[in-house]
Write a structure and sequence with these properties.
Chain A: This is BPL/LPL catalytic domain-containing protein. The complex is a heterodimer. Chain A is an alpha+beta fold. Chain A has helices at 18-31, 77-80, 83-88, 118-121, 130-154, 174-181, 227-230, 248-251, 256-259, 264-277, 286-298, 301-307, and strands spanning 3-10, 36-40, 68-71, 93-95, 103-105, 109-117, 189-192, 195-198, 201-211, 214-222, 278-283, 311-312. Chain A starts with a strand and ends in a 5-residue tail after the last strand. Classes of the chains: A alpha+beta, B alpha+beta.
């Protein structure tokens, strides 16, 4: 199955903050009609477009620049956060527009977002309901991407004489791609009780938002993370069975420990996989997206941030 | 078709049967003030009684969404256009928008859902309702589906 067209937005080195990323995603989901793949890492609060300050008193005048806590739409701070520590360290807490759990985001997280439209996905049996979406992303997007990553890690890429030399997965020919897609080896990626795992270790958090004409699925992959940041989170009451009583440290895996310091190879594997899911993948620069959607339709980032569902929490009761 | 999708579809089909046991009034009996229920393609329902509509998601929707863990509702007196999102329902890590079937303002909110969101699963078209709202323009009901059309719509989605 291939959808007709996918727009690829690479936000690495874009300079937009985590808060702006969330706002941008919601803008594309609700006020655009295209299929999208976004990828990037973001400083928590170094804004490129947002100018208005909306700081809670405990984080004023300068909030913690190292990380930001992002909760799902239904998250309860009293149950999920170490509130005294969050306040003493001046960490900003936000609520996003999607469901799911709580993550601590910093510049080490690789953040992916897929936006799919019903008119493209329904004919292929992907329904706008949570399990159907998650099954597709696991089977057709991240599963194949990790296959490529595992094979590239363990074997040198053999390029046939008739194929162009590779510069990233995206330029590989059909034969080499088949080698990367076969002979799965290395830590096994799978969807386990709604989590993406390698073995029984969780590698990131995922969540979704479903609207009338489509859906958004975003994931924060833990390429690396600071142990100290996990202290802001409590052990959630509701957790998957496979987690048991494990702390964050024993439950999570740093992807760099398996795949190396640079996440570029992961982004390349994602691009290659996207090229297999769509007939046409078009890269689009951020400034054009901002102009077409955020500025022309929504009055700019400041105006849109006032209206969107992403919110900085000022109180935790 | 995957096992999970097959299972979800079988649940959805049973939910269609339960949904259609909701009372519906034929037009000629409207003067006796029975409630009339209408449905949207996005699986909201509105039960109209005396100019006020009770709105929620259908049994088909709750079966497809899975365990509901949170319901985000508007404030009293909030106003919505037909087709505008008035809230969301969270299940299996997904926040799904819910849309106003007609134009109107919110007169009552089901606060019970704050502490008991699972009511949407156990009684989507009963005590799991979301809001009650005025109906600014009754002609907007004409574009919604009756029970027969909604049944057909669900069966198409399930197949």
């Amino acid at each position: 199955m291939k959808i007709s067209k996918l727009f690829w937005l690479d936000l690495r080195s874009s300079g937009i903050s985590a808060l702006e990323r969330l706002s941008l995603e919601e803008a594309l989901l609700r006020h655009d009609h295209r299929n999208w793949f976004l990828v990037g890492s973001h400083q928590p609060l170094d804004h490129k477009y947002l100018t208005k300050k909306d700081l809670p008193s405990y984080a004023s005048p300068v909030p913690n620049p190292d990380c930001i806590v992002v909760m799902g739409v239904g998250g309860k701070p009293s149950e999920l956060l170490n509130i005294p520590l969050v306040k003493s360290k001046k960490v900003l807490v936000t609520k996003r527009f999607s469901g799911g759990g709580t993550v601590v985001l910093d510049s080490n997280s690789i953040w992916t977002t897929f936006i799919g439209r019903n008119e493209d996905f329904l004919p292929h049996g992907v329904e706008p309901f949570p399990r159907s979406i998650m099954k597709w992303t696991a089977d057709r997007l991240f599963g194949p991407a990790f296959n490529k990553l595992n094979n590239a890690r363990l074997s040198p890429i053999l390029v046939d004489e008739n194929e162009t030399s590779p510069s990233g997965f995206g330029n590989l020919g059909e034969k080499t791609m088949q080698k990367l897609d076969s002979d799965v080896s290395g830590p096994q990626f799978r969807l386990r009780e709604n989590d993406y795992v390698l073995g029984d270790l969780k590698m990131g958090g995922n969540a979704q938002s479903i609207v009338k004409d489509g859906w958004l699925h975003h994931t924060s992959f833990l390429w690396d993370y600071e142990d100290s940041h996990m202290q802001y989170l409590m052990l959630p009451k509701k957790r998957p069975d496979y987690r048991g009583e494990r702390s964050h440290r024993d439950f999570l895996v740093r992807l760099k420990s398996i795949y190396g310091d640079s996440s570029d190879i992961f982004v390349s594997s994602l691009h290659a996989t996207c090229s297999q899911t769509a007939l046409n993948v078009e890269s689009i620069p951020l400034n054009r997206v901002m102009e077409e959607v955020v500025n022309n339709k929504l009055g700019g980032m400041d105006t849109w941030f006032e209206k969107c569902r992403t919110r900085i929490l000022h109180k935790f009761d | 078709m995957s096992t999970a999708a097959t299972f979800a579809r079988s649940i959805a089909r049973r939910s269609v049967a339960r949904t259609l046991r909701t009372q519906v009034v034929a037009p000629q009996f409207a003067s006796l003030r029975f409630a009339s229920t209408y449905y949207t393609p996005a699986h909201e329902y509105i039960t109209v009684d005396g100019g006020v509509g009770t709105v929620g998601v259908t049994d088909f929707a709750q079966a497809a969404l899975g365990d509901i863990v949170f319901v985000d509702l508007p404030e009293l007196e909030d106003e919505f256009e037909k087709g505008e999102s008035f809230g969301s329902v969270e299940s299996v890590k997904a926040a799904s928008d819910v849309y106003a079937p007609v134009t109107g303002s919110v007169t009552e909110i089901n606060d019970t859902l704050t502490d008991e969101p699972a009511l949407v699963n156990t009684g989507a078209e009963d005590d799991g309702w979301f809001i009650k709202m005025t109906i600014s323009d009754e002609s907007e009901l004409e574009s919604l589906m009756d029970e027969a059309a909604y049944k057909e719509h669900c069966e198409k989605e399930s197949s």
